[in-house]
Design brief:
The complex is a heterodimer of chains A (150) and B (86). Chain A has 150 residues and is of the alpha+beta class. Chain A contains three helices and eight strands. In chain B, 21% of the residues lie in helices and 36% in strands. Chain B is globular. Classes of the chains: A alpha+beta (150), B alpha+beta (86). At the A-B interface, β3, α2, α3 and β7 of A face α1 of B.
């Protein structure tokens, strides 16, 4: 399977991938391109990735989750390319026999994505500027400004 | 190639690719070598290389590794900017 797409995410497909009468709880998480009070006029975000590694790392991540919650099923897709504010960049569906597990698995997957999956984003702003974003959600410090730079 | 050297394919992504003006390079270095040796060589030899951090996130053959991981001839070594997915 592929974990990447360049088209809008389908929640129905994600849920269909994990649904079963044996799994009574399904938790869906969507990460959406944000343009709120903390942002500076974000029109869209351009997502890029180390695509071969994303596929490999997602497979390892899902295997890790399934080992921890053997009764759970997980579907996850990350969208790449230019995504307008308000549209989803990642969708996760986690189904388990009971709701507590479904919430736990879903939370585990998104937190691991943030830590492990090599995807990067560049904000495209209304004023025409483009800024790489770091994991804290702030504009990337240029390496020449970084204290770790020689 | 000489038996005592290793050649690796280096890949750059996102902000790092912009800093060095390319998405990949080939680097030869004495064997045995570590990812840290590859990073040092890239920073010394590539135009713009000094703008890369001394201790970037790295991957070898699609797996996250630390800088003391060894590299072999033919490996793919990736320089990964801080991960920002989701």
């Amino acid at each position: 399977m592929t974990y990447l797409t360049r088209t809008p995410l389908s929640i129905d497909q994600l849920v269909a991938d994990v649904s079963s009468p044996a799994r009574g709880g399904t938790c869906v998480f969507l990460g959406t391109v944000r343009n709120g009070p903390e942002e500076t006029g974000v029109k869209a975000i351009e997502y890029s990735a180390y695509e071969e590694m994303v596929e490999a790392e997602f497979a390892r991540l899902v295997a890790d989750a399934t080992k921890r919650w053997p009764d759970a099923r997980i579907a996850v897709r990350h969208r790449l390319g230019t995504i307008p504010a308000g549209e989803a960049s990642i969708g996760i569906a986690a189904a388990a026999p009971h709701r507590a597990q479904a919430f736990e698995v879903c939370r585990f997957v998104i937190e691991e994505v943030k830590r492990r999956i090599p995807v990067w984003k560049k904000e495209l702003r209304e004023d025409g500027t483009e800024v790489w974003v770091d994991p804290s959600g702030h504009p990337t410090v240029r390496p020449s400004d970084s204290p770790t730079h020689a | 190639m000489h038996a005592t050297s290793a050649t690796v394919r280096v890949r750059f992504f996102a902000h790092y690719a912009e800093l060095v003006g390319r998405s990949e390079a080939e680097v030869s270095l004495p064997f045995p070598a570590t990812v840290g040796d590859v990073v040092r060589r890239v920073r010394e030899d590539l135009p713009g290389g000094r703008q890369l951090p001394e201790r970037p996130l790295t991957a070898v053959n699609l797996k996250h590794v630390k800088l003391d991981a060894s590299v072999r001839n033919g490996d793919e070594v990736a320089f990964l900017p801080p991960i920002a997915g989701g």
